[in-house]
Every structure is written in structure tokens, then in C-alpha cells.
Amino acid sequence: MSHPEEGTATPxxxxxxxxxxxxxxxAGNGFEEALxxxxxxxxxxxxxxxxxxxxxxxxxxRLGISRVTLREVLKVLQDQGLVESRRxxxxxxxxxxxxxxxGEGE
Length: 106
Known about the structure:
The protein is mostly helical.
């Protein structure tokens, strides 16, 4: 039985849209630029509420920042209530549903 090589998986449908937004950041502004880019992904709904963001490793590689810096960015987004981190086998960083989508008309 053969195992697929790592990195040969079919990209997710949203992968191209994320690539258009998530670009390597400039040196010196890594934290701020990464924060803005991930905010844009969330605000544009490129990763819908309840869905998982790409892995820390993938996000850090796409943005050209360290995972430590990425964790600081994700902490700010979590403090703002935009994402939540879940641990475990099916864990990761998930976009929180928008409040207006939860209780419209109430």
C-alpha cells in the first residue's frame, strides 16, 4: 500500500483565495502586517465562521513570519473574539461565527 507524499494533497477550494490575501510580510512590520492580513481573511469570510484556519506552520510559512510571532497575532485575534483555539486531535484555530449572524432580528 502506498502512502501519498506529504505536500501532494489536493489544495482546499479556498486555498487560492487565501493565497491572494496571505502574502509574505516585510521585515520589521511582521506582527502588524500579519495581523492585518489575517483580519482581512476573517472579515472577507474567506474562512467562514466555525471553520479552521490553516495550520500554524502553513500560516507562518505563507506570511514569512515565525510561529512565535504568529501565535502573538492569533492571541490578539482571540482576545478580540474573532477566533478561538481548540486543542486536541481535531484542534486548531477556528474563526468564530459573527455575532450578527447568530441573533439577527432578536
